[in-house]
Amino acid sequence: MRVLHVSGPARGGIARHIEQLCGGLSPAGVEGRLVSVVVSPASLLSLAREIRRGRWDLVHCHGFQGGAVGRTAAALAGVPAILTIHNTLQISAPARLGAKVTEKWLAGRTARWVAVSAYLRNYARQELGVPPEKVETILNGVDFPPEIPPRQERPVLGTVARLIPAKGVDVFLRAVQLLRPEIPELKALVVGEGPEGARLRTMSRDLGLENIVEFLGYREDVAEQLGRMAVFVLPTRSEGLGISVLEAMARGVPVIASAVGGVPELVRHQVTGLLVRPGEYGAIARGARRLLADREGAETLRKNAYREVAANFSARAMLEQTAATYRRVLHA
């Protein structure tokens, strides 16, 4: 089976998810490759030619930009297409209306929708008008070590996120500023890049954090960077599920995250982590203070989180469910 993955320019969680699919499904006899597209007639026609020339069996689109171009090109090439929804539409209200109209037009050209969380499955049905019988949930999954790694002893807070407004890295910086006076040895790590990078670095300097916060940019070694953190923070304002949260839980890093989107499907408050309302940097600071001081409580949370990932969010389960979806679409 040959599957062509199509997305807009993507890094972060979506990119890591596609890498998982391309590499992880090979043992199941699925050959995968990624094509990055932009919304334009030239990109559309080029992709349609590639689908025909490459004799791809299925087009798997990711995100709304990849979905618009990928599904249209697949229809032109006479190949079935599915769309994975990774997040809600992050665009202005007028553009959102146009996107919904486009989604309605593409409905007949979509064999299946896949949502990475129950929250996004409901969003697809209620906001995008996707027929309930054509959307399924395949939870994101991650690899995890056979045993929970040791906890970082030094007071290091960290986040892994695209540097865009929706991810709330500015909220993270303000929480770090609150903690700095009482924890002199405090350090903070920001893993990720994006259009907000320059502004956030300036903000960090203005808050007096230039010697506290380290901006690491895009990293391939996310697991290693998570191992440097005593507390992981996802201060997001919008989230489909949260691969970075899963990765932190799998590495045994205690988690504080915003209770938005699909995040509460991963983090159960005071069981597998701490949840806060979006934008509340004071609550993040209080949670971090607690996790750094209460060793026994933090140990309980991180062990519960590790077991939760192993039981319900494994990469193996995600790959098996995805392969089964491919087979159903192709044999329908």
How do you describe this structure in short?
This protein is of the alpha/beta class. The chain folds into 2 domains: 2-141 and 314-330, 3-Layer(aba) Sandwich (Rossmann fold); 156-312, Glycogen Phosphorylase B (Rossmann fold), CATH 3.40.50.2000. It is built from 12 helices and 12 strands.
What would you say this structure looks like, in words?
The chain is of the alpha/beta class. It has two domains: 157 residues, Rossmann fold; 157 residues, Glycogen Phosphorylase B (Rossmann fold), CATH 3.40.50.2000. 43% of the residues lie in helices and 17% in strands. It is built from twelve helices and twelve strands. The strands form two sheets. A six-stranded parallel β-sheet has the order 2-1-3-4-5-6, sandwiched between helices. Strand 4, helix 4 and strand 5 form a beta-alpha-beta unit. Helix 6 packs across helix 10. It is globular.
